[in-house]
């Protein structure tokens, strides 16, 4: 079949990781070739071993995941062909390598375990019926996974830069607190001065309200004209 499997071109979280990658779902690819009892498999091989891969004659001969490092290929994601028809509903992508429990399984069932290295890998879809392979797609382009970084190569500088950022943030926070205190102090002083001015105005009003009228001092009164004293102690009328 002319279909070529590929990693989705659109942005997708975790599209390619160190142990997994996503594939577009092959919808409408096997319509007209599959029966109701047929199944579609995904063959995964190291890119340099894909040319040597041979389709298994039956389900019993499907290469299992646990032999990937020795056989250089395996098959997984067994799915009823009807799930890939044009009318079938389902997620738009498939994830290869997502089953982390594969290493703990001793059974021979096909497993979709994490990929052991960065690859690169090639994949193809294979339609199998009761009598063996019926149709297949082309191999994908090489898919290279992300490489894990050795702890010895990690630059500690980002940690130092992080500490410097924390110090700068602390200084800015302190300056902000000082500025806030200054603003609050200025507002408090302004409010206090306003209250004092109001109090002074009330005092002045009270003092003005109770100020008495001016009363001139009493002038000395002259002695009565009808009484004259010549020798001390004597007084007679004029």
TrEMBL record:
Assigned GO CC terms: membrane
UniProt-listed InterPro entries: Uroplakin-3
Keywords: Membrane, Transmembrane, Transmembrane helix
Membrane-crossing segments per the record: 164-189
Name used for this protein in its record: UPK3B protein
Organism annotation: Sylvia atricapilla (blackcap)
């Amino acid at each position: 079949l002319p279909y070529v499997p590929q990693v989705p071109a659109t942005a997708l979280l975790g599209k390619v990781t160190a142990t997994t990658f996503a594939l577009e779902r092959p919808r409408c690819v096997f319509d007209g070739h599959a029966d109701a009892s047929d199944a579609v498999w995904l063959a995964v091989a190291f890119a340099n071993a894909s040319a040597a891969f041979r389709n298994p004659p039956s389900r019993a001969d499907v290469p299992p995941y646990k032999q990937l490092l020795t056989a250089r290929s395996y098959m997984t994601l067994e799915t009823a062909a009807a799930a890939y028809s044009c009318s079938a509903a389902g997620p738009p992508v498939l994830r290869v390598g997502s089953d982390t429990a594969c290493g703990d399984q001793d059974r021979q069932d096909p497993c979709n375990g994490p990929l052991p290295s960065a690859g690169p890998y090639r994949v193809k879809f294979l339609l199998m019926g009761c009598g063996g392979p019926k149709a297949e797609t082309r191999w994908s382009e090489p898919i290279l996974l992300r490489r894990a970084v050795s702890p010895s190569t990690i630059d500690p500088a980002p940690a130092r830069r992080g500490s410097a950022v924390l110090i700068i943030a602390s200084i800015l926070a302190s300056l902000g607190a000082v500025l806030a205190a200054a603003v609050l102090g200025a507002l408090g002083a302004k409010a206090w001065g306003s209250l004092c001015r109001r109090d002074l105005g009330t005092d002045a009003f009270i003092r003005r309200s109770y100020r008495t009228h001016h009363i001139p001092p009493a002038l000395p009164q002259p002695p009565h004209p009808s009484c004259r004293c010549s020798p001390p102690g004597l007084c007679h009328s004029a």
